Amino acid sequence: MLPPSPQPSVAGLDPLTMPMAGFGPPTAEPKAPTPLGGPGAIAEPKLPSPQVATTRLLHQQRLASVLRGIVEGLDLSGAEFWLLDDATAELRPAADYGDHAPGPARPLETAQADVAAMAGSASVLVDAEQVAEWHVDRPCRAAVCVPVASDATIHGTLWLYCVTPRAFTDGELQLIEITAGRLAVEVERRRMLDAGATTPTLPPATLPQPAPTQLGELEIAGDATVDADSIALHDWLTLADGRLLLLAGAVVDTPGGTRTDALLAAQAARIAARSFAEADTTAPLDAGQLLSRISQTVWQATPGGEGLSLAVALVDPEELTGTYALAGGAVAMSVRASSTWVESTEAPPAGWDQTERYATHPFELKLRERLVFPVVDPRNATPTKVDHLADPYRGLPAETHRRMTAERTVELLKESPSNPQAAVALRWC
To answer: Sheet of 244-252: strands edge to edge?
Structure first.
């Protein structure tokens, strides 16, 4: 399975998220980004003119794509990225998306919300009264301003606008912060390229790795590898409707991709899973629908074409039933004393195809059954190698199976010759 080519520019790149209410075409044609220029803008590299023009155009397209993705994803009306000019203490427009062009450079002394955001506190304005109080120049009735920064440098601010009053959930704010991180990566990349380097030097983020736990009669455990060669994750969350969300995944290697891009893709998948699973308790998603939404989020978040092998499960802890869905090298496996079965998928990694709709598989958990979701490199997901994932459990005495916890199930999985990168296990005890 070969990775897709990098997604096309402005019209085809939508980083980060998708409409919370479901899929749908853009409601407006993308507007060309505001060109970078003037004091405080990123200096042009000393390259021959055609190469300068190409580098500049690609950078602007990537910025515009980031903004377009978050606007369409959260059903907003527009977005603006403002670069900080230290020399003049002004914020200058770097890129925008929407039907309203940004104004001229703004002095910091009049940019209250920007200063508050750059000081570390997002400015969230939920109605026209708050918009007026903070002197927002763009016509809107709700807005968010967050800092665009690396650990070492504050680059500017990201503004998002809505023409109707609205609140922003914690999940939406997390997605907005991921978008700001994406902008920071693009700015750092451009500056490093201008200086003759090839990749930004942003310090890597960390991915939460929850410890084994027990929720009522259910045990949950997981493991994931995060090192120089692998970016993987496992996660779980009790949702507002009482269901349990389980997640295991690993970033698929992409030619030319950076570790920072891979981490951003993994973070976007984790946050999207949590956000979309909680989004609508009146019509809860099944696992296939959730994975499809996660996939489009990852597609939008990764202009370099990163994808994830991903297993998603939603469990009713009262009924001990649920659904799961698989992408790429993700596998579902049931382990019992009497039998073990293994199931893989031919579906592409999440984030490679925005139109992919992942299949939903229902299940009913049996007493002392361990439902395991290992994730392997898609290149190792042949039927034979996938079947070897069950080798550590075959031939064990029935009593060993009965006593085997979810945590021990994951530990034994590491002995498999198929070398899983991540796994999450569920056991009815």
So the answer is: 232-238, 244-252, 307-316, 321-327, 361-364
**Contact (Cβ atoms closer than 8 angstroms) between residue 191 and residue 42:** yes
DSSP result, 383-397: HHHHHGGGGGGTT--
pTM over 0.90: no
pLDDT of amino acid 200: 44
> Span 273-281, mean pLDDT?
75
Give the C-alpha separation, 6 to 415, whole Å.
36
Query: For residue 250, is pLDDT > 90?
Result: yes
Residue 304: helix, strand or coil by DSSP?
coil
More confident residue, 408 or 194: 408
The one-letter amino acid at 257: G
Whole-angstrom distance, CA of residue 193 vs CA of residue 128: 42
For 299, the enclosing helix (H) or strand (E) is: helix 287-301
Residue 309 bridge partners (DSSP):
250
Residue 414 has pLDDT above 80, yes or no: yes
Using alpha carbons only, give the angle 143, 146, 147 rounded to the nearest 5 degrees: 150
Count the Cβ atoms, other than its own, within 10 Å of residue 207.
17
The set of residues, in sequence order, having a beta carbon less than 8 Å from that of 114 and lying 6+ positions away, is: 82, 91, 106, 108, 123, 145, 157
